[in-house]
Write a structure and sequence with these properties.
single chain; about 250 residues; alpha/beta; Rossmann fold; 8 helices; about 45% helix; about 15% strand; globular; binds NADP nicotinamide-adenine-dinucleotide phosphate; oxidoreductase; Sc_DH/Rdtase_CS; SDR_fam; SDR family NAD(P)-dependent oxidoreductase
């Protein structure tokens, strides 16, 4: 097997950081990319040899610059983890609904950003005899969280896009994988009054995600996200009520 050469977007914190550290710990060559150089540098300081790069995935020119940087510094890229994302609590029922800029920020990061990154890096990935393109989705793709309506919609769209991409690339060297996390204890939930109950600790999530990746699963559905996957098939209205009644 060729050496793992890994790029993680949004690798300066949370799930991206956890996965980057796990790959680094087992000897992979790893680059993390994001908007916040201080948090990227802090992760790299703990992981000798880890590379850092700047990117704002919501800006196409920034994504193109990252492709050039990776082609130069990590030309053997064979595992891209499309992880960068934001979550906003948005109230459309109030007197002032969210403005277009706020709504666009979430779509441009979670959906357009992910699609742009995938498209822009496919030529590099396809140079390798075997490569993986990993999308970080969400259990909320199955059952939306109403207080994060745009976020939930972007994750449902990511799930749909990932299925189509996997189908289109089936006869190529690139395997398309989606990881669907449950609620994980990270800074993603900073917009909420408190961390959601039943949040999975980050180390436990990373261990489960790495196990699924190593098993070669095309869909790595972790923890309570498995319940949501089943729920949307057997009792979607019931579980929509459950998820939204218990939300903070
Ligand atoms: N935590 C959960 O419960 C959960 C559940 C399901 C799915 N997920 C998904 O997991 C992924 C990682 O989230 P997390 O929970 O680890 O939260 P996080 O700690 O807030 O990580 C998100 C990362 O994305 C980066 N980022 C945000 N906007 C970016 C942009 N425009 N360009 C480049 N980087 C950007 C952030 O860095 P800066 O803000 O510093 O740029 C940060 O490092 C997201 O896709 C999220 O939707 C999380």
């Amino acid at each position: 097997m060729s050496k793992e050469c890994v790029l993680v977007t949004g690798g300066g914190s949370g799930i991206g950081m956890g996965l980057a550290e796990a790959f680094h710990a087992r000897g992979a060559t790893v680059m993390i990319a994001g908007r916040n150089r201080a948090s990227l540098d802090a992760v790299a300081l703990r992981c000798p040899g880890m590379m850092v790069a700047d990117v704002d995935v919501s800006q196409p020119a920034s994504v193109e610059a990252l492709v050039a940087c990776v082609a130069d510094r990590l030309p053997g890229l064979n595992l891209l983890i499309n992880n960068a994302g934001i979550q906003q609590v948005l109230d459309f029922a109030g007197e002032t609904p969210p403005d277009i800029a706020t709504i666009s920020r979430e779509i441009d990061t979670n959906l357009k950003g992910l699609i742009h990154v995938s498209a822009a890096f496919l030529p590099l990935l396809r140079r390798q005899p075997s490569a993986r393109l990993v999308h970080i989705g969400s259990g909320l793709a199955y059952v939306p969280l109403a207080m994060a309506p745009v976020y939930s919609a972007t994750k449902a769209a990511v799930h749909s896009f990932t299925m189509s991409l996997r189908y289109q690339l089936a006869d190529t060297s690139v395997k398309v994988v989606e990881i669907l996390p449950p609620v994980v204890d990270t800074a993603l939930h900073r917009g909420l009054a408190r961390t959601p109950p039943k949040a999975m600790p980050l180390p436990a999530f990373v261990a489960a995600a790495m196990k699924g990746l190593d098993a070669g699963d095309p869909e790595v559905v972790v923890g309570l996200a498995k319940v949501l996957k089943l729920a949307q098939r057997v009792a979607p209205r019931l579980f929509f009520g459950v998820v939204n009644k218990n939300s903070v």
